[in-house]
Amino acid sequence: MTGLEVLATSPLLIRIVRLTRVVLQYLIGTTIHNIFFNPLNKYPGPTIASVSRIPLTYAFLCGRAPHWLARQHEKYGSIVRIAPDELSYIAEEAWKDINGPTTAFRYGQKRSEDFFAYFFNKQSTEESIVTASDDDHRRLRKIFARAFSKQALTVQEPLITQKVDALIEKLGRASQAGNTVNMVDLHCLTVFDIMADLILGETLNLLVDDSPHAGWVRSVPAYLATSFFLAALAKFSIIRLFLSYFALPLLTPQYKYFQKIMGHKVDVRLSVKGGRGDIVHFLTDLKEGTPLSRPELENAVLILMAAGSDTTPSIICGLNYLLLAHPVVLAKAVEEIRSAFKADKDMTWDAVFKLEYLGACIDEAFRVYPPTTTGFPRQVTSMSGAWICGKFVPGGTTVCVSPFAAYHFPSNFHNPDHFIPERWLPQAEAKYANDKKAVVQPFSTGPRDCVGRMVANFMIRVIICKMLWNFDFVLEPGQENWAKQRAYGNWQRTPLMVKVYSVNRD
Ligand code: HEM
């Protein structure tokens, strides 16, 4: 027998050949099904995307998914098939049809669970607000809603203001010393400082130089990016299988650090009896209703710290940059803020919400630089399917409004890539009359929309008001294209270097 003949009779080789044949048959079969028989065929999109999710995943892994989605919508229109079982939307009515409530689905479609598969510690099987069934979500949301009510947050207003004052002091010192500062770092530290006190009742003093907790703050973006990254890869069943055994070495040190420290912080917080009205108090106190179980609480604290501490600094950094990059807009915002307040202490909750031009700048920053770039996908219920934007979508399909693509779509906005706060004003020029403003929903819509939107909106306003009232800022050379960043679900922010000058009021 020749070597080749021996090899041909090897049981291992025979198995490999059989396995390869089965895999090839499966791939050819699904390809033919996806191209010719899949009910999503009536939706336009790149042919390759109807066969495989590789193009979408590749764009995601390159950090270019928001821009890739925007290009597909420009080419194929307002609904695009972006993967064999996934549709992307950019029309206003998609929000309601997908997220609810509709007559058929009072609770909207459920969030895709695999999106959050790598958010939580695998040992914890308890549900979290982001993955809960409709019934569990209703129960959890009621408790969260009390914690984030205006009444509960008003008690926390002095605490928030005090942290922003620490930022102002730090900027004051930088201005005196003539130092250049990295606003991304400062906004992340300030918001995290607020979040830790608001949620866990823990004072971190992050704006004091050399804070030992700064590592915790800096782990947040990488923690989020890692979990989104793995979730994107796990959409392929073979990779999901591999990850179920070997995910650990792929987790970044920041991811592991963030998970570990969160568990520890919950222990520390629970060892303190009472609490001063922080969010954990609301989530655990019997007087506030059924308290959360321990695993539910850990998941809740993790999601709150991660959700609030990346999105909020993201929009504040984006707004900070966009204002400094547009001096005419900046001058109008400064004029409004400096004439509205006689003193720094006048910037109260109610007062900062009255500034119309600042409100327009914030809306426009959310549009141009949305903190959640690719949205939170939903899975159409497998029982019945659903009607979305007037078209039937079969059960099991993943659907999502893609924020960046929707907000930059030329038919949705006049001059979509330009920062023009004026379009949001009641007296906007006629050319902006057809802008589809209701498509901009940075906090999402429906029963599972953002529970932290009120506190986030206050933080954005009070931070920008206090900064612009006290200082003039100038972008350092080389920062002109700061917003051109990669995104892995969240923006991968690079340092935003600015010079600070105290306002002379003599
Ligand atoms: C500018 C800042 C923020 C933005 C843009 C933002 C955006 C979002 C979005 C888009 C969702 C998903 C909703 C969906 O799936 O339809 C969400 C959910 C959520 N956010 Fe925020 N968020 C921000 C700040 C915060 C803050 C400060 C907190 C809390 C401290 C927070 C807590 C949550 C929670 C708990 C959920 C899940 C709500 C639920 O399932 O009922 N967010 N957020």
TrEMBL record:
Belongs to the cytochrome P450 family. Its cofactor is heme. It holds the Pfam family p450. Heme binds at residue 450. This is Cytochrome P450. The keyword Coiled coil does not apply. Keywords: Heme, Iron, Metal-binding, Monooxygenase, Oxidoreductase. It comes from Hyaloscypha variabilis (strain UAMH 11265 / GT02V1 / F). GO terms for molecular function: heme binding; iron ion binding; monooxygenase activity; oxidoreductase activity, acting on paired donors, with incorporation or reduction of molecular oxygen. The keyword Iron applies. InterPro entries: Cyt_P450, Cyt_P450_CS, Cyt_P450_E_grp-I, Cyt_P450_sf, Cytochrome_P450_monoxygenase.
